[in-house]
Amino acid sequence: xxxxxxxxxVGLKKGPWTAEEDQKLVAFLLSHGHCCWxxxxxxxxQRRLHPYMHGDGSARPPCKRIHLVSDSQSxxxxxxxxxxxxxxxxxxxxxxxxxxxxxxxxxxxxxxLHSQLGNRWSKIAARLPxxxxxxxxxxWNTHIRKKLKKMGLDPVxxxxxxxxxxxxxxDPQQDPHCDGKASSQxxxxxxxxxxxxxxxxxSAEPKQGATCSxxxxxxxxxxxxxxxxxxxxxxxxxxxxxxxxxxxPLDLFQVDAIIDMDWASILSGSGGGGDxxxxxxxxxxxxxxxxxxxx
DNA sequence: AAACGAATCAACCGCATGTCT
DNA sequence: CAGACATGCGGTTGATTCGTT
Length: 295
What we know:
Blueprint: H1 19-32, H2 40-43, H3 82-93, H4 104-117, H5 121-126, H6 133-150, H7 161-165, H8 180-193, H9 195-212, H10 214-219, H11 222-225, H12 227-237, H13 249-259, H14 263-267, H15 280-287, H16 291-294
The structure holds a DNA duplex.
């Protein structure tokens, strides 16, 4: 199909994020949440925006009608595609992320869940508060897989290697985890085989999610959640390692709390969020929204 | 101290899925 | 209902770091 790419590739930056980009993104997302990721890079460079955006996908505002009057004005935004912003945020900048290696308990849980769900990393990650699918996937491929192999277990089937080799469908020369086709076959197998179990797991997810969502961010000590760890790791990940002027952690937490509010009620004016309930368009005019296209 | 290989992990890519018009 | 679009997911890549010789 003639489907357009998720972003215009021309002129967009790739590769490692700089501290400055991180800062822009964090500051923007903590104060506004996100609406459609495609717009985030553009809006992240703007000075002030109304926090109309949502964190949970509900009450989605009419993003498609948002129209920046000019992209090339004074505030250039981030030269990244929305996809890249989302990835950076979910895998690295999110305040409620745990850093560091997985604990033994977490590792066991991952193994257990993998035996039931296969390579459905996002599902697995959903059961481990503060961990991302990417992190778990990397940890699996670099640590756990080796451990299982050492123990004589097939990392795919979780059965003793001899038993899994007996499977005629499986090419013993090949590591299914390194082969996309094999992996998809394998996950398809899991999909059919573990459906009931998965259903049970999935249905249990909301509870887990509830314990680890925004409240986790606040429950953990402020520093790891907010700028200290984020900035530390961000600068660590930054080639230049430049010092960054991160927002005050306390400010971020106040904003974070606001983000957790019910945006639908905020937008309807009943949120009681003080200046949050002000007219959207007042704020939009600040950043060059074309009101005409909203209506 | 330098060179090399292995390990790690952030980021990218393409496809799948869900939602909206 | 079909097509278009945005987002999410899993696999893969490649730059960087670490360990060994």
